[in-house]
Amino acid sequence: MDAFGILFVLVAVGLPLGVTVGFVVLAVRHGMKRGALDARNRALLASGVPAEARVIRMGPPPGVQFGNKSEMNLVLVVEVHPGRQPGYRDAASPFLAEVFAVIPRYAMSSVRPGGTLAVRFDPTNPMNVAIDLGAMGYT
Known about the structure:
The protein has one helix and five strands. The chain is of the alpha+beta class. It has a five-stranded antiparallel beta sheet with strand order 3-2-1-4-5, covered by helices on one side.
């Protein structure tokens, strides 16, 4: 086999293999991030301070998207209005937070710029915010 034949075999086998391995690595990384995000959100929904938030801006997260067509991965910038919640030291002060969320398509009509969402936040680190779909009537 000449040099061209060897090069052809390397490209024909190596390129698809490399692309496949790349996608597998990205899928695993995404799954790990998604798992950590889900665990953090479950903890916030169980023990976070309830509040209302107004959606300031929304869009897709940076990077590669994986998932199915029944949900949307979004990054939301929200203005959280904690009101007078027990256990939160700055009850009167609204604050901005960035939320990475996976929203079911059936709930997307409630998630729009200018819209109001039910959220829960960590009183020790208010930048940790989770959307409370259950409080909005979604399960």
